[in-house]
Amino acid sequence: MTTALQNVLARAADPDEWERFERQLRATGYCRRPLRLKGRVDSVDPKTGEVVRTYSTEDEPDGTLLKCCGNRREAVCPSCAEVYRGDAYQLVASGMRGGKGVPESVTEHPMVFLTLTAPSFGPVHSRRVDGGQARRCRPRRDGGTCPHGLPVGCSVVHDEDDERLGEPICAECFDYEHAVLWNALAPELWRRTAIQLPRELARLVGVSQKKLRVRVSYVKVAEFQRRGALHFHCVLRLDGLDDNGEVVAPPARFTEQLLIDAAQAAARHASFLSPAPPNATGRPIRWGGQVDARALDEETSKLTARYLAKYATKSTEAVGGLLYRLEGDDIDRLRVRPHVQRYVKTAWNLALRRELHPLKLRRWAHSLGFRGHCFTKSRRYSTTFTALRQARHEHVLRRNGELRDRSSDVRRWHYSGSGYRTPGDAWLAESGRKRAVEQRRVAREELRTNPLEGRRR
Ligand SMILES: [Zn+2]
Ligand SMILES: [Zn+2]
Ligand SMILES: [Zn+2]
What we know:
The chain has 457 residues and is α+β, with helices and mostly antiparallel strands. The protein is built from ten helices and 14 strands. Strands 4, 7, 8, 9, 12 and 13 form a six-stranded antiparallel beta sheet that branches. Residues 31-33, 68-69, 71, 77, 79-80 line the site of one zinc ion.
């Protein structure tokens, strides 16, 4: 701490530099691992070719400009993840209630919340709640042991924070290979389900798919369960097709119930085998038995948007997984719970099989085989992250009175590192972030207790 304190005091010794450093921290949103850039921007008058203004990082503290890391994961950078979560919320919510280029009439479209789970890969400790009461994990009247000599049942009533939740009852009985293959192929399973959806809709209304004239738009997040398998939560919205490709309400016979039936049928239908060597059979890749589809109303829509946005900033956190891609001998030094180690090592070893090369399992071992994005949407569901970021950027420029044509700017940047140069700078950023979070909380609180007062500010 002495060094951090010395760093902070050194910064504070020059009030002007202190002020500029603080301004940079604020501009990155108190990012935890910002990029450090050096360089200059020459603003050129496009008519005369003359340099009218020059910005150089030489005048900045340490001759460096900080740029936020932009990571979406809360465990990596809480402040950048907060921005991402806000954007994810806007993406989900605007597809439900309109805005950001989506017509408000979407509120009239059938909308369904679909949850797809993985099948079982072996019994795990779980907390079962039945009629508001927690039940025993896996009661077996006759006891009995598995081929590895372990009891097949578990009569414990697990607490919500029990470390054993999601752990296999016998690790040797748990089919890690199948679980990894399933995680790796889940994006393909989803793709096939999405292709099957309009087919099921056509079947249910009794027309050919060509004459269907509706389309399912969706947004979905992947969520890891403690047992290491994925869950998918999707919002499905049924859109009509007009001749100009605009999003319009579908004909009246396309009801919410029809969409629910089609989604369940599509989920049951989608199934294939994992790649296998010649003369062998692959593992079945299909959804688990619980396919939950329910209609969304105004109230549940809001909760759902918040829920999806929250999961957009996570990955394997719920299983206590790894944050970064593994290299070389990392595999021998994994500091995660044994169950997750088995997943990671299984993925690492399966990668050697020729038929599984396309799954790039070493690259995705840290995410237990899953190589998809945690947050995805169909093109027409709503706007994009890029569009939201651009709008925010322009808003800042407009506020600072800097919005002008920058196409003629000549930029010469080079990257000089990432993260803070000293522990003191990192400490300043972290305490700044906490202060900003607290200020936002107080502002929200004031708005709630005295809405008029809050508005006048
Ligand atoms: Zn960041
Ligand atoms: Zn148990
Ligand atoms: Zn066993």
